[in-house]
Amino acid sequence: MSRSLIPSFGDFLVYDNIFDDMNREMSRLHQHMMRDFRHMRNAMNRLTPTMEPSDHSSDLALREQLQLIRDPIVTEADGTRRMKVQLDFSQFKPEEMNVTVKDGQVTVHAKHEEKSDTSHVYQEFSRSFVVPEGVDADTLACSLSRDGVLTVTSSPLPMIEAPKEKKLAIAQEK
User: Fold this and answer.
1) What is the pLDDT of residue 52?
2) Closest-CA residue to 157 (of 131, 118, 128, 123)
3) Is residue 136 part of a domain?
4) Based on the structure, what is the number of domains in the chain?
5) 26, 115, 144, 170: least buried by Cβ within 10 Å?
């Protein structure tokens, strides 16, 4: 009489196939979920400016990006100064976007929804920023480039006059 160390409860082959099928299906679903997660992360990275230096060799890129967030006033090549904010909206159609100005604050909002038999994609983005001092909110305009970059600009700001030099008389004490 020989004894088996492995207990026998009938036909394991049926149960093995069921668990193998479940395991394959779970792996497939996990791969789809991770693919969608990577897609979502890439979309968010395109919508949100990075806060890390691009070359990692210095903090200069980070300081420049933070400065543009704090003060979106740019000086163009011809010397004119204006407010200019650019955002990547390549994932959205123009009719899905909305830009409003209220109480000195610009709000950019976009919403996209896509449904099919096998998936549901929902993307929503909203960003608000304060109109800098000296910028007339009534002069703000928006444009959308062919590659999906939304630009919010103001009319040129008044030129700041350089301080004039004044010669001071020297008084002699007696």
Assistant:
1) 46
2) 131
3) yes
4) 1
5) 170
Predicted pLDDT at 7:
52
CATH code (residue 111): 2.60.40.790
| Residue carrying the six token digits 């009719």 | 95
Q: Using DSSP, state whether 124 is helix, strand or coil.
A: strand
How buried is residue 115: exposed, middle or buried, by Cβ count under 10 Å (0-12/13-18/19+)? exposed
pTM score of the predicted model: 0.53
CB neighbours of 65 closer than 8 A, spacing ≥ 6? 49, 50, 51
The 3-state DSSP class for residue 55 equals: coil
Please indicate, yes or no, if residue 115 is contained in any of the structural domains.
Answer: yes
* Beta carbons of 99 and 108 less than 8 angstroms apart: yes
Residues forming the annotated binding site? 112, 114
93 within some domain: yes
Its domain, for residue 78, covers 71-153
